Amino acid sequence: MSQEPWEIQVLESAYSTKQVTAWLEHIRLPTRYQEYAETPATFPKTYESLKTLMRCQISRFPYENLSVHYSPTHLVDIGPDVLYEKLMGHKGDGRRGRGGYCMELSIFFHHMLRGLGFQVYMTAVRNRGRKDGVPGGEYLGFTHINNIIHLPSGQRYSIDVGFGGDGPTSPLPLNELGDAVQNLGRQEVRLIHDNIPKQKLKEPKLWIYQYRNAPENEWNSFYSFAELEFFQHDFEVLNWWTSAKTLHRWTVLVVRFLREGENVQFSSNPTLPLANDVAIVGKVMLVDNVIKVNLGGKTNIVHSFDSEEGRLEALKKYFGISLAHEEKRSIQGWDKALS
Q: Three-state SS for 78?
């Protein structure tokens, strides 16, 4: 069997073995994987291990767009070194790590997978527009990102750790079957290989990420992508537009997925049993001036506030995020500032 050209290349991570080890410890791996923390390159290259890494990642690093609201530039820096410092936190000053938006989370995760020895590359994604939160209409330009992984078994998976509360909680297979994969609650997701309406050329077909909120519902499509490798420099261009023009600038948004046994309120010292599997059972969301919780079914508002002080307290209480003084003051005069 001939090897694919990219498989014979050594793809180095932007992160050192020490940094990868620190990340493995930070994401609270189940006990059976902890032996690989000191030798990351020996981490198992299986679907189960990949699923575990994904679920640990999305439950540890929230999707959030705070940098466009709470920073002097109101822009986002996606350099791998900047991402490591932001997501892993600042030792010595008491600040905990943050999350990020899709390009931040997926580029960070991409280099961690490289550091573990996975064969992985990044690709760009076309989202559809939404009305009242429901995707519809045209597929727009490239404003999203995901990772494609080739396992030694020959299986290929899409792994998206940065689509927020609508994202998958398991790797999705790249095959022609289009099998439904259980997501949060009764929701199912899948990838199908097909054309999108605006394509004039019918080849290559694109992978289309679809969801339905219950098995009896019709499928609807969120986004599409091709198996085309994109690089850091490509995403630097896309990030400039995305962080300046889109990125939910019309709302302040934070989403944290919840592992089984976790509290809705953030705990810096979780007492979770390190089981052999990681189950995602819900999500907690900050949307402007409210906290919403979905534990696999209906979404409910559990807390609201009407001031910047209240929002900063909610960020710390539900997400473990403490902003620096300069970040806090950067929202003053911004359209999304509370009183």
A: coil
